[in-house]
Design the sequence.
């Protein structure tokens, strides 16, 4: 791994707890309006619209749209599914920004700090730039750049998203390590020429419902970002 110059990261699930955070945000926004639903099911339902919405862009059925725009389309779908009606526009806008208020897993801020001592680091996420900035500011994450879908004008797992991240750092793809908790993301990154590291997030989709280990070949498999830093020889404070 001595030729690795930069690390790029998946964000939703890998760095932040989207399920628990969206459930909390939905409850805080909707409960005062008299809504009472299974909040984790609401988060799951919203997330279930994620890939289909991006596929509309990847396939060319829709022009490129920021994830915030897609999330709003998806929110309208999930509100109908849960029979939640009569929300004013301001409440819908605020609820849609729940994805800007996600909490990082506990190992993320200290792990990224250690990794940044040795490597250039950036998100390579389907999230738009303002979303990544808000998550970074909320959770004390320090990036060298913000890369990913909005930079590439397309969505993972398109090769251009990974390759444009490498190019932004003036690196060959093989000099960049893609870090994710999702084997399909890592398989696509590897096909685009990047090296890959899997981080286990076994509770991402609910207790025991995330990936405990990769299901594809990877260069490194780690328990969390602190373990990844250890394996890559990144310094300890």
Sequence:
């Amino acid at each position: 791994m001595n030729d690795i110059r930069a690390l790029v990261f998946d964000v939703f699930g890998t760095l932040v707890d989207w399920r628990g955070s969206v459930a909390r945000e939905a409850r805080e926004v909707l409960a005062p309006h008299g809504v009472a639903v299974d909040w984790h099911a609401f988060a799951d339902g919203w997330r279930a619209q994620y890939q289909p919405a991006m596929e509309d862009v990847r396939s060319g059925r829709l022009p490129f749209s920021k994830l915030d725009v897609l999330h709003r389309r998806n929110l309208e779908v999930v509100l109908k599914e849960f029979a939640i009606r009569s929300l004013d526009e301001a409440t819908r806008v605020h609820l849609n920004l729940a994805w800007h208020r996600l909490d990082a897993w506990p190992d993320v801020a200290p792990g990224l700090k250690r990794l940044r001592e040795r490597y250039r680091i950036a998100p390579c996420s389907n999230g738009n730039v303002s979303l990544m900035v808000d998550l970074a500011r909320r959770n004390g994450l320090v990036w060298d750049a913000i890369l990913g879908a909005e930079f590439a004008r397309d969505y993972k797992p398109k090769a251009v998203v990974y390759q444009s991240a490498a190019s932004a750092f003036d690196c060959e793809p093989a000099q960049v390590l893609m870090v994710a908790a999702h084997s399909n993301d890592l398989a696509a990154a590897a096909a685009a020429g990047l090296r890959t590291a899997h981080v286990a997030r076994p509770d991402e989709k609910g207790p025991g419902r995330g990936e405990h280990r990769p299901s594809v070949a990877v260069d490194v498999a780690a328990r969390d970002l602190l373990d990844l830093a250890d394996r890559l020889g990144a310094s300890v404070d």
Observations:
- Residues 67-81 form the longest helix (15 residues).
